[in-house]
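Q: Could you fold this chain for me?
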Amino acid sequence: MKTLHNNIKVVLTLVFFITIFSGHSQEKMYKTQLETVYLKNTKEVVYKNTFSNYNESLIASNQINFKKEIKISKGKNSSLLFVSNKNNIELITASYLKTIRKAANRSRDTEAFQTFLINNLPQLSRQFAIDNNLKELYFISRKDTFNGKIDALPSVL
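A: Sure. Below is the predicted structure, expressed as structure tokens.
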């Protein structure tokens, strides 16, 4: 009985070592067969960008009433699209407007506004970095926020 038990231990030990060494040799074989892969940095081609168009329409209105605009966009159930060869992004217009309102309310300048948008909408960070209309959008949207209205009050001192 002891010899059978010892034979089983020896067989299991041999099987264990064979599997370890065969797996290790396969790994070495695959490492020698693989070559370095170089990724080509392609420029992003934008096919559709309704975010920029929407920002331009907000700027053209020269005054934003966020409450009214959010209500209208919720009623229409509208969304904004960004389609390129690298990204496809769809965002509900009402949530985009809420993010703009928060950014304008919590920011003291255009750089903080842009940083807030990049942090809260990271999928659009490339577009926010190159968008020239964000400064105008900040000043127009700041007028309709709580902190913007307080800033517009005349100073008592």
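A (continued): The longest strand covers residues 79-84.
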